[in-house]
Amino acid sequence: MRQAGRSLPEYRRVRADVPMLEACARPDMITEITMQPVRRYGVDAAIFFSDIVVPLKAIGIDLDIKPGVGPVVAEPIRDADGIKRLREIEPDDIPFIREAVGQLTGELGNTPLIGFAGAPFTLASYLIEGGPSKNHEHTKALMYGEPELWDEIMRRLASITVGFLRTQIEAGASAVQLFDSWVGALSAEDYRASVMPYSSWIFNQLSEYGIPRIHFGVGTGELLGMLGEAGADVVGADWRVPVDQAAERLGPGKAVQGNLDPATVFAPWEVVAERTRDILARGRSAEGHIFNLGHGVLPNTDPDQLQRLTEFVHEQSAT
Ligand code: CP3
């Protein structure tokens, strides 16, 4: 459950006087915040506490994460000069990542740690738009109108992403998730032509490690097959496509992850239980199924409801 921490009082306490990106650069904080949902809920895996923009900040891009807004970039990147600012990432840029992953693998014992990074399209959108965007208009203008610049920005971002993931894997992460959160804004043709080659390259670079690779985006019903084809072992689906249909779209050899609508946990428990039972039943037709929310935990979520949900999924999966 991404951003599960946000709804927890213990998270708010730890973060009270520390800005998000500062917290992401302090190994003690990363470790503590990563452990919080694991301790409280006993989930089957931990997701590393960081953010998709951390590697961009680490190579010197001036950006911040504004509460309630998301990543905001001081000078959006829209031309060749701007793209040159996207240099390769070196292990020395992110020593805190290595240190935190090392601490966590010790603390977690047998619970796997999922490392992650943003995919090139989603990172490009933040950099080109300068912040969160509904329509991604500057991003699409560059993609359609200046294919050589697009290729350059996507190559550079893919390389940064691989560097960020390698650091996590080599320090001990046992699976990785590539978040292409906003790629559902594209048509299937545009995805295949202008995005998939770069995400494929990333998955290829990681194949040598032999660890599970998860690929996720929001609103990707029409793209699910290609998210698998790009080289992932597991594809995350949001709640718009039932899990059994998602599995069908993925075809053989892939597992599916998802997909309870995060807003559902605001409904009475009986509704949550019924929807969850349905998702688990549908998941049985897939080659593999990881139960999860279809997107991140919403900030006002009641932690007790998540606790009940975790227990329920464990009970139901044991039978
Ligand atoms: O549970 C965890 O802590 C997992 C770590 C995690 C964070 N961000 C921490 C975070 C992960 C996996 C992410 C990924 C991320 N970040 C994505 C891809 C996943 C997705 O949800 O689609 C994206 C698009 C981002 C960019 C980003 N960072 C957004 C949209 C936001 C939320 C802005 C808001 O306040 O609504 C952030 C901030 C952020 N990243 C928070 C956390 C815990 C909230 C910080 C806070 O307010 O305390």
From TrEMBL:
Record field: catalytic activity: uroporphyrinogen III + 4 H(+) = coproporphyrinogen III + 4 CO2
Domain Uroporphyrinogen decarboxylase (URO-D) span(s) in chain numbering: 114-130
Assigned EC number: 4.1.1.37
InterPro entries in alphabetical order: UROD/MetE-like_sf, Uroporphyrinogen_deCO2ase_HemE, Uroporphyrinogen_deCOase
GO annotation (BP), single: protoporphyrinogen IX biosynthetic process
Pfam families registered for this protein in UniProt: URO-D
SUPFAM superfamilies: UROD/MetE-like
One Gene Ontology cellular component: cytosol
NCBIfam families documented for this protein: hemE
Assembly description: Homodimer.
Protein name per Swiss-Prot or TrEMBL: Uroporphyrinogen decarboxylase
Species, as recorded: Nocardiopsis kunsanensis
Gene name tied to this protein: hemE
